[in-house]
Amino acid sequence: MAFRSAVITFPGSNCDRDMAVALEQVSGTAPFRVWHGDAELPDGLDFIALPGGFSYGDYLRSGAMAANSPIMREVVRAADRGVPVLGVCNGFQVLTEARLLPGALMRNASQHFICRNVGLKVENADSLFTSGYVGGQEISIPVAHHDGNFFADEETLDRIEGEGRVAFRYIENCNGSRRDIAGVLNKAGNVLGMMPHPERAVDAAHGGTDGLMLFEGAMKALANA
Amino acid sequence: MKIRVLVSLKPGVLDPQGRAVHHALEGLGFKGVDDVRIGRTVELDVADDTSDEALNEMCEKLLANTVIENYKIEKLG
């Protein structure tokens, strides 16, 4: 059966096309493109992606406006039903603002916008999204953000670490994130938010293909589920 | 009714903007500035019968992110 995925586009999203290209490349089926003002998601989705960018111009706080857009009510409902949701960069910010993921993404500690490849350590290779990797594996994925400094209080950090919900950590902390956290899972494991851009590392021409295993692993895990 | 909502970072949350402004003030030669924290003011003009509960909900749902921010509601009349 064809893989049914959707990429949500908010006003100001700018990695939605890259995400769609990556999903089509890996699955062979073009994802549905869904606009933020749409009231409904397509039926029977296998995968939802929230792309990077600057939704609503980062007004108020990064991701805050998008988290309250009409389509996000549907995304939250789908996530609660167990549909896998991947949020990258601004998508991660939206997921925290929508309270699907813990914590918040603050201004980088350096105050600088960072755009380069970073080394990541795969902390948990048992999740749907990370099953294409090996635990402890070191990979290289690009980041491009100003607000990627993951913050949560100590109690929350202890809890998410204890529950194995840290998917990726920075090998060298580039933005001030608490405990070097680059990617976080929800409790059920079907929602992942990460600042690095796996969709920008799926073709040798991108300079690396370490993002490929995320999409391939997720698709394989879903096919076997 | 005019309402002013003051949104500030919770104590202990790093404020890189505040830190940069602090450095800039020192660079301008101002002495004795111990700390700088930057927040946000939101001014609302709402119906007079807007309840405190509704105002709190606006803050909790959108105006502040209570993971990192505190808010204070002031009624300006």
TrEMBL record, chain A:
Name of the molecule in the record: Phosphoribosylformylglycinamidine synthase subunit PurQ
UniProt keyword annotations, A-Z: ATP-binding, Cytoplasm, Glutamine amidotransferase, Hydrolase, Ligase, Nucleotide-binding, Purine biosynthesis
Record organism: Qipengyuania polymorpha
Annotated EC: 6.3.5.3, 3.5.1.2
Top-level taxon of the source organism: Bacteria
Lipid metabolism in keyword set: no
Chain's role: Part of the phosphoribosylformylglycinamidine synthase complex involved in the purines biosynthetic pathway. Catalyzes the ATP-dependent conversion of formylglycinamide ribonucleotide (FGAR) and glutamine to yield formylglycinamidine ribonucleotide (FGAM) and glutamate. The FGAM synthase complex is composed of three subunits. PurQ produces an ammonia molecule by converting glutamine to glutamate. PurL transfers the ammonia molecule to FGAR to form FGAM in an ATP-dependent manner.
Active-site feature positions: 89, 197, 199
Gene name per UniProt: purQ
Gene3D superfamilies on file: 3.40.50.880
SUPFAM superfamilies: Class I glutamine amidotransferase-like
Predominant location category: cytoplasm
UniProtKB/TrEMBL annotation, chain B:
Pathway it works in: Purine metabolism; IMP biosynthesis via de novo pathway; 5-amino-1-(5-phospho-D-ribosyl)imidazole from N(2)-formyl-N(1)-(5-phospho-D-ribosyl)glycinamide: step 1/2
Alphabetized InterPro entries for the sequence: PurS, PurS-like_sf
Main location: cytoplasm
Enzyme Commission code: 6.3.5.3
Top-level taxon: Bacteria
Alphabetized PANTHER family for the sequence: PHOSPHORIBOSYLFORMYLGLYCINAMIDINE SYNTHASE SUBUNIT PURS
Family: Belongs to the PurS family.
HAMAP family: PurS
Annotated NCBIfam families: phosphoribosylformylglycinamidine synthase subunit PurS, PRK05974.1
Protein name as catalogued: Phosphoribosylformylglycinamidine synthase subunit PurS
Record organism: Qipengyuania polymorpha
